Amino acid sequence: MKYEVVIGLETHAELDTESKLFCGCCTKFGSEPNTQTCPVCLGLPGVLPVMNKKAFEHSLKAALTLNCEISKFTNFDRKSYYYPDLPKNYQTSQNYFNIGNNGFVDIVVKGKEKRIDIHNVHLEEEAGKLVHPEASGANYSLVDFNRAGVPLLEIVTQPDMRNVEEVESYMQALRCILLYIGVSDCKMEEGSLRFEASISLREKGSETLGNRVEIKNLNSMKAVLKVITYEISRQSLLLNKGEDVLLETRLWDDVNSVSRRMRSKEESHDYRYFPEPDLVPFWIEQEWIDETRATIPELPVSRRRRFVDELFVSDYDAGILTEDKFLADYFEECVKISQNSPKELSNWIINDVLRELNERKTNVRDFVVSPEMLVELVNIKPTIGSSIAKEVFSEMMNTGKGAQSIVKEKDLAQMDDTSELNAIIIKVIEENPKAAEDYGQGKKNALAFLIGQTMKATKGKANPKILTELFKQRLSASSK
Ligand SMILES: [Zn+2]
Fold first, then answer.
1. Which of 32, 70, 148, 212 has the most CB atoms around it within 10 Å of its CB?
2. Spatial contact of 367 and 353, defined as CB atoms under 8 Å apart
3. CA distances for 76 relative to 123, 146, 358, 414, 467, angstroms
């Protein structure tokens, strides 16, 4: 490959607020179409927008977390264009005074750190959604304005990424940060998080940027990575043939895995931005910035480091635990209330809790086993053994009951009474004289067989350590 790839990303994240950006309409996803609208978000004449303070605070928090310089003075602008999902024929956005500028996100790719610069972070409103009932044979489209006016944060990077690995790492880091600070639910399947990529190629060593292609509305990380891979090969083929890459906007066709031309530069919109006259400009006081900064929690990178340094969890495990803020909270809660080693708790969470969450397609916030319940189970594990502990764990999830009461109810406590065990051992030896004889002749495997038979007889409840001791004593005595 004789070209260098230059990639920039724009991210749209719907902000997690109860009501829309400029009116009191509900933002809940998935309601009946056009049931969450009012004259303001429908753009009817004579209405006046009122800004949602929470949405503004979320944007400020995101801009601060992304290390941006905050514009003390900011306002909204009208971005004019016509599209059926945009009832006002303009989108209220920020163009001249973005809330944040010149930030950065640090990512790690193949063990190496890299800084991706953020050009700006700004707040705007969502458009509605077009619904195409083509499947039913209709020759029209419908529009749902429930989404129109939902607060949307746009995060624009510099063209700093050079390959798909960096893009993937950036998207994951950004999503993780937005979830950690609680400003967006980042549900890609509901469109709360979407990406647009700009991709260009240039000869290695060249300082000038090649013609860039913009790809709109990518609603999964997989699609972003696929379109970039596709564009790299499409553009390098053109350049190899001595042809120009056209400056254009393309759409990704996920079904056929190709990008298609949407519009060329000549057809691109002149948005005729001008300051929104219906909203006052804002001065952001330093006090407000300080207060907001104080609400930013510990971020995944430093939390991961702390888990390794202070709790002695392996770096790999710490990475898994801190990927989801609520999973990391769950782990820390367990550590706080338990006498057990963080390593043992982290093993339970990574192996058992995560497996169950994946299988049940749920998340740790809705998980029936609370940290208290998990700790109770880990505490009594030495008295019931590992395999029964797993059984109790699955029973806890099915019933929501505590480990102690399940052990009591199902009579699962480990047998460690030696006289009781000895009685069973005698019986097992009687039934398996050959194995006992084999052991006497030095065949060590025979012991494992006898222990297995005893485990079967006690339904796995015999304490394996005591059992082994008792067997050894009895068999060596009888072979003398
Ligand atoms: Zn409304």
1. 148
2. yes
3. 8, 22, 42, 68, 75
For the chain, list residues with pLDDT below 50.
none
Give me ligand 1 centre to Cα 38, in Å: 4
Residue ranges of E strands in 246-359? 248-253, 258-264, 274-275, 282-283
462 shares a domain with 342: no
Angle between helical axes of 53-65 and 286-294 (0-180°, round to 10): 70
388 plus 426 within the same structural domain: no
pLDDT of residue 26: 98
The set of residues, in sequence order, having a beta carbon less than 8 Å from that of 418 and lying 6+ positions away, is 466, 470
Domain identity same for 309 and 457: no
Both 372 and 434 in a single domain? no
CA 428 to ligand 1 centroid distance, Å: 77
Q: By residue range, what is the domain housing residue 441?
A: 418-479
One domain, residues 441 and 398: no
Same structural domain, 73 and 43: yes
Q: How far is the CA of 150 from the centre of ligand 1 (A)?
A: 9
Instruction: Report d(CA 197, CA 228) in Å as an integer.
Output: 8
Distance from the CA of 123 to the center of ligand 1, in angstroms?
A: 17
pLDDT at 110: 87
Q: Tell which of 409, 431, 454 closes a domain.
A: 409
393 alpha carbon to ligand 1 midpoint, in Å?
A: 47
Number of domains in the chain: 3
* Ligand 1 center from residue 55 Cα (angstroms): 15
